[in-house]
Amino acid sequence: MENVELELSQEIILLLKYLLLGIFQGFTEPIPVSSSGHLVFLQHFLGVEIEGLSFEVFVNFASLFAILVIYRHDLKQLISGFFRYLLKKDEDSKSDYRFGIFIIIATIPAVVIALLFEDWIAGELKQIHVIAVTLLITGAALFLIRNLKGWKNDHEISLKEVIIVGLAQAIALIPGISRSGATIVAAMGLGWKQETALRFSFFLFIPISVGAGILAVSDLLQDPNLADLAVPYLLAFVGSFIASYFSLKWFMNIMRSGKLIYFALYCFVVGTLVLVIL
């Protein structure tokens, strides 16, 4: 009886740990503090060892659904306008077509880097101290653009600028470099308005997340512990979705109020504490 109770308590603790991991990842995914880095930190403190990137990709998919829900009207307009211009050459939809093409182009650098260096990134770079340093870099970048407002809207961004933002997203494959932070910093550094930078950043997350999810399916299906991890993964997914939804809503308000310095200071504090304590 004692063994049964012990096993039950261990299972409950494991479920709670995965739920916490999902919530933590979901909350940190939209904001510029590196969800991948925080996920590694939390796994370390909770004593949960998850090999590879399949779990991270899985909970990122939950964040993707949250982003799709929040931006559903913008995405509907973009997609319909894209195909209206593509198929009918409707001049009123040309800006949507152009924006869509820019999203595709900006996605390419991260796809190439991920395909070439996925194993190295998942292994060599997912080290606590490496992430602490890259988190400090994220904080420094956010600090530099903290007061920028920008003047370029969706129609005024150029192909060269889009490629630079795409390269910033590729750099953010390094754990500890925030994806949203890197793309927003690059965009605002190029003079983009905050709203344009934010929309482009999260639209850019969509193809990356979908592609990573497709590539991770085989890893998940081949996992010998898949049956045992089904419920923990599902809990993490639900937690990530809910946390991502409210976190993105909150971050959108933060962007409007121009208070990115709070995230810069947070990155400085966490990165320094990790270097000192661990």
UniProtKB/TrEMBL annotation:
Topology class, membrane: Multi-pass membrane protein
Location relative to the cell: Cell membrane
Signal peptide extent: none
Record-level Gene Ontology MF annotations: undecaprenyl-diphosphatase activity
Keyword annotations from UniProtKB, A to Z: Antibiotic resistance, Cell membrane, Cell shape, Cell wall biogenesis/degradation, Hydrolase, Membrane, Peptidoglycan synthesis, Transmembrane, Transmembrane helix
Main enzyme class: hydrolase
Spans traversing the lipid bilayer: 12-33, 53-71, 97-116, 128-145, 197-217, 229-248, 260-277
Catalytic reactions on record: di-trans,octa-cis-undecaprenyl diphosphate + H2O = di-trans,octa-cis-undecaprenyl phosphate + phosphate + H(+)
GO cellular component: plasma membrane
One BP annotation, GO: cell wall organization
Domain of life of the native organism: Bacteria
EC number: 3.6.1.27
Pfam families, alphabetized: BacA
HAMAP family documented for this protein: Undec_diphosphatase
Annotated function: Catalyzes the dephosphorylation of undecaprenyl diphosphate (UPP). Confers resistance to bacitracin.
Remaining remarks: Bacitracin is thought to be involved in the inhibition of peptidoglycan synthesis by sequestering undecaprenyl diphosphate, thereby reducing the pool of lipid carrier available.
Family membership: Belongs to the UppP family.
Protein name from the UniProt record: Undecaprenyl-diphosphatase
Organism: Halalkalibacter nanhaiisediminis
